[in-house]
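[SOLVED] Need 3D model of a two-part complex

Original post:
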Amino acid sequence: MATTTTMTGAAFDQLPFDKFHRWELLHGELIAVPAKTPRHQIIVGMLSADLYEYLRQNGGGIAVWGCEYALGEDDRLTPDVGILFREKWESVDRNKTPIPLPPDIAVEVIDPGDLAEYSLRKIWTYLGSGVKEVWQIVPEIEIVMIYRGVKSVTVLDVAESLSTPLLPGWEISVRQIFSARRQP
Amino acid sequence: MSGAAFDQLPYEEGRRWELVQGEMIAVSSATLEHQGIVLDLGANLRQYLRREPRGGVALDVEFALSDDNRLRPDLAILLGEHWTSVDRKKVPIPLAPDIAVEVQSLSARANDIMRKIRTYLAAGVQEVWQVAPEFQTVLIYRGAKSITVLEIGDSLSTLLLPGWELPLREIFTA
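Solution:
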């Protein structure tokens, strides 16, 4: 079993920036985030761009990737994409990190190095802190899972589209998510 | 490799392997907590199936789910004809269990778990129970689109085992 390091959110915030590793803090436990695969980053980039553009056009908020959120005293998570609706986005200091509130939607793309236990706990942590929807994207088996609450999971396969009442009019086919830049 | 080639591999003492879609996956050694949960849950199911002779429960037995899949669920439940028809002296078992239970270890990769669950369901397993001890949660998969999440205040039960029920609290205090 892996050894665990525990600390408070305040202590985590003081850690020096570490060039080769990314860390998250989950219930006070320090978690190393594995380096991302190209496929992961392509999906994140494509989805971020699509959501960013949608939110820019309708003034509904922002989609940002790679930002850290302070979700509670002992939780510092960095979703692959975080969506903040206008009200939240207008209230945050854009020059500060971590963002001191939960995103409205958190998107996590599962990588080969991700551990099952942490993936689950992260979803629950997001939902527990007030995130309205967590989208878990699983390239390995080409599905998207939407968590709208601890008890509400929707599974989408490549024949379906990802959409949400939270983003009226926005839609992307699951196939498109997974076929992004498949060919050079 | 193919399932047939996998079946010919020598037994290897230090490691356990599974074959998922032709890919060898190393299975880590289990922790005391993991084995405690498996044993308690298995014993509870076995007691029920003795009272209600609908089938049997197998602990850590390999199933040949298709040409290139050989999986070893922590617990497997075979019902009715599946149970009565199977040769108990042979491994791998050449059919899919009705229920497969996987107790998640801390080192399990999210991808491996999801591929296994998908493989079980595609092979005809009616329910997969994913038990996550660290988070005291059980996820029940009843098909690619149906996931039920149980938390510590809930009880685990299924239409496949009428009258059987086990509070999650009992599973996780094992």
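Edit: The CA atoms of residues 3 and 68 of chain B lie 4 Å apart.
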